[in-house]
């Protein structure tokens, strides 16, 4: 009973979130509304203003040109108009030189799909063959006026969709970027804390758990890279581009992935090793653990002022590596951990 109630309530919850929170739901609602408005405008202009007969391509093109970014809308307009133009010309040629509709249909579809595979047409390439097929099958291929109408309808609808998307609340992807930043920062901080616990002497079995956690972090890094790409593309040609969230904090977290992987590999290898000289002594492990916990705090807070403590701990590790102590035989394991840890601190300082 509860599950059924939740299923019925889900759409209302989605609408409530869209009106309350500036997230994915609101962006989807805005884009859907713009697509509907673009279709209606394209139909009204095509029928009431231009008096085009059966202008079904106008609203169709308008809907598909309300894309996730302004750049994709403008690029899609050029691609779709180009694809439909090629299909119209192909149908016109078939109508002039091939008397059989059946033969013309097959040749137009075959040739149109081959031409549409050119990467310059993008996702709109299929419309070379489809447009030619529709015109030939409807018997419009031999009527230049109707061919011109189909081209005009497509250009009109595509232009309305692209312009509306570019002018009315052009889409931004800052929400996706902020969410990805928060998730990745939290995951990196948790992994650093777990690595610190392993350095300090937690059971070697914890190294296997840590490796599984790293797979989760790798997935979040991929998500972060995708969010950065969407944000950069969303800013391009966007009238609201200056309001877009900066991607630098997330990009900086992504750059920590290679040294973080090396650090955890070094710690895990040392923890599993049965050779005493591979694992640092108690004091060295304590310093490395303190460094990892300090880095976790920086990752969570994003506060560069906390890096001073990290730098001091790196200097302490360097001193342990060059100064003879009772733990001198552990320098191999300590050195393997020190290099990626130093790279993480340097990368955070550079950012």
From TrEMBL:
It is a multi-pass membrane protein. It is found in: Cell membrane. Its main location: membrane. GO terms for cellular component: plasma membrane. It comes from the Bacteria. InterPro entries: ArAE_1. Coiled coil: none annotated. Pfam families: ArAE_1 (PF06081). Keywords: Cell membrane, Membrane, Transmembrane, Transmembrane helix. The chain crosses the membrane at residues 29-50, 86-115, 121-139. This is Integral membrane protein. It comes from Amycolatopsis azurea DSM 43854. The lineage of its organism: Bacteria, Bacillati, Actinomycetota, Actinomycetes, Pseudonocardiales.
């Amino acid at each position: 009973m509860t599950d059924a109630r939740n299923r019925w309530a889900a759409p209302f919850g989605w609408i409530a979130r869209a009106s309350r929170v500036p997230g994915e739901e609101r962006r989807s609602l805005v884009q859907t509304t713009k697509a509907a408005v673009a279709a209606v405008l394209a139909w009204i202009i095509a029928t009431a203003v231009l008096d085009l007969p059966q202008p079904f391509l106008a609203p169709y093109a308008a809907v598909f040109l309300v894309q996730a970014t302004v750049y994709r809308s403008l690029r899609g307009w050029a691609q779709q108009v180009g694809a439909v133009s090629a299909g119209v010309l192909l149908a016109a040629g078939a109508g002039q030189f091939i008397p059989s509709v059946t033969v013309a249909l097959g040749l137009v579809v075959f040739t149109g799909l081959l031409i549409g595979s050119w990467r310059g047409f993008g996702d709109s390439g299929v419309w070379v063959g489809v447009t030619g097929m529709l015109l030939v099958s409807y018997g419009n291929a031999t009527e230049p006026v109707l061919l011109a109408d189909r081209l005009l309808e497509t250009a009109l609808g595509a232009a309305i969709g692209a312009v509306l998307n570019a002018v009315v609340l052009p889409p931004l992807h800052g929400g996706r970027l902020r969410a990805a930043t928060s998730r990745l920062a939290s995951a990196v901080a948790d992994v650093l804390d777990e690595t610190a616990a392993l350095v300090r002497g937690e059971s070697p079995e914890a190294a296997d758990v840590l490796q599984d956690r790293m797979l989760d972090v790798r997935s979040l890094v991929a998500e972060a890279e995708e969010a950065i790409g969407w944000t950069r593309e969303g800013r391009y040609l966007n009238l609201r581009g200056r309001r877009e969230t900066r991607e630098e904090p997330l990009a900086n977290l992504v750059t920590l992935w290679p040294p973080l992987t090396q650090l955890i590999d070094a710690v895990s290898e040392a923890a599993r090793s049965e050779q005493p000289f591979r694992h640092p002594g108690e004091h060295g492990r304590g310093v490395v653990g303190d460094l990892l916990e300090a880095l976790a705090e920086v990752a969570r807070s994003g506060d560069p002022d906390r890096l001073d403590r990290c730098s001091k701990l790196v200097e302490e590790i360097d001193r342990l590596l060059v100064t003879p102590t009772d733990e001198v035989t552990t320098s191999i394991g300590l050195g393997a951990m020190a290099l990626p840890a130093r790279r993480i601190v340097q990368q955070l300082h550079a950012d």
